[in-house]
Structure formats: C-alpha cells, structure tokens
Amino acid sequence: MIKYLFEPFEIKGRHLKNRIVMPGLASFLIEDDGSINDKTVEHYRGRASGGPAMVIVEACAVSPE
Q1: Residue in 7, 16, 37 with CA at minimum distance from that of residue 60
Q2: What averages of pLDDT result for each successive group of 10 residues across the chain (65 residues)?
C-alpha cells in the first residue's frame, strides 16, 4: 500500500504529484480578526515545500476584495 503514496493521481480534474495531503490544523498564528500575517505565510510555505501534494489551510478571514 505504501508504494502508492508517492505515485501521482488525479482528483476532480486536478493532477497531484503524490497522495500526501496536509489537513487544516489550527496553528494559532492568525490574527484575532482572522487575518493572516507573515508568520502564517511562512508556516504554510514551509509545509508546502516539504512535499505534500495538497495543503489545506486552517480557518481564516476572507477579504471581500
């Protein structure tokens, strides 16, 4: 089963380089109003560079712009 972990696959028309997904976990790095900051960006940048095909972010505010 582990041999499939690093094989590419497609889900809903999206090509993923492997089957590793980081779920959305509370990092407690966002601001009190839900906005992100430089620490949040660096946190997810570090996770994404580690090799998962998909990174799901935690709850945060969405700008109307």
Answers
A1: 37
A2: 90 94 92 91 92 91 80
Contacts of 2 by beta carbon, 8 Å cutoff, 6+ apart:
none
User: What is the C-alpha to C-alpha distance for residues 31 and 57, in angstroms, rounded to an integer?
Assistant: 15
pTM of the model: 0.74
H-type helices in 1-65, by residue range?
A: 38-48
Beta bridge partners of 15: 10
Amino acid identity, residue 54? M
Residue 30: how many other CB atoms lie within 10 Å: 19
